[in-house]
Amino acid sequence: MTVSYLDERTGLDLRAAEDAVADLLRALGQDVDSEHLRGTPARVARSFAELLTPSTFSPTSFPNRQGYDELVVARDIPFHSLCEHHLLPFRGVAHVGYLPGGRFLGLSKLARVVEMFARRLQVQERLTQQVAHWLEEQLEPKGVGVVLEAEHLCMSLRGVRSTGALTVTSALTGIMREDARTRTEFLALTRQRRQG
User: Fold this and answer.
1) Which of 115, 122, 124, 149 is catalytic?
2) 80 is known as an active-site residue
3) Could you tell me the sign of the dihedral formed by the alpha carbons of 150, 152, 156, 160, in that order?
4) How many angstroms separate the CA atoms of 95 and 11, rounded?
5) Distant-in-sequence, close-in-space partners of 41: CB < 8 Å, separation ≥ 6
6) Residue 154 falls in the annotated catalytic set
7) Is 83 a residue of the active site?
């Protein structure tokens, strides 16, 4: 019987994950005792632990004393996540914006919010909504816009094998959803990278 090892930082049972990877490799006809695969179960367990553990952060926000009432957009935030259906990566860029109410979020925190939700077993649609809802709850802005563009390896390496195909998802709240001019401005800002 193998003794479990619970990693205090991640809360994951690395020993059980290592044993599961070894069992999977054996089920796939691989010799886990071979020179080349001997350390693979431990490496795979550690890599999944890393991929599924976000960095901790404090959502630093600041009062909007100047009454700033234009969009704040962070564009081309790189992210990667694991598809919960195939355990294969998907990766791309996030465009995150909001129309401030009473508070601003520290700019680096927009990328950290994306990472926090991406470092889970995910589907892109849910990830997009989670980022938008978190910003809504934390800042109470006039509106939030989130657009994710990603290539899914479960689609490009297997099945249909559509290499380079991007999936684009969006989540819009408040005035970003209700006001056509604000929505158009936000979406235009997210497309500028591709046009020039």
Assistant:
1) 124
2) no
3) negative
4) 30
5) 18, 19, 21, 22, 25, 32
6) yes
7) yes
Catalytic residue among 18, 83, 95, 115: 83
What type of residue is 175? Answer: I
- What is the pLDDT, as a whole number, of residue 44? 95
Of the candidates 122, 130, 149, 152, the residue annotated as catalytic is 152
Identify the pLDDT of residue 189: 94
Query: Which regions in the chain score pLDDT beneath 70?
Result: 1-10, 193-196
Domains and CATH numbers, the chain: 14-51 (no CATH), 61-195 (3.30.1130.10)
Q: Which of 80, 133, 154, 185 is catalytic?
A: 154
**CA-based nearest residue to 81, from 167, 18, 183, 20:** 167
Please indicate whether residue 124 is annotated as part of the active site: yes
pLDDT for residue 11:
75
133 noted as active-site residue? no
Q: Which of 50, 84, 140, 178 is catalytic?
A: 84
**pLDDT by residue (tens digit) across 65-92?**
999 999 999 999 999 999 999 999 999 9
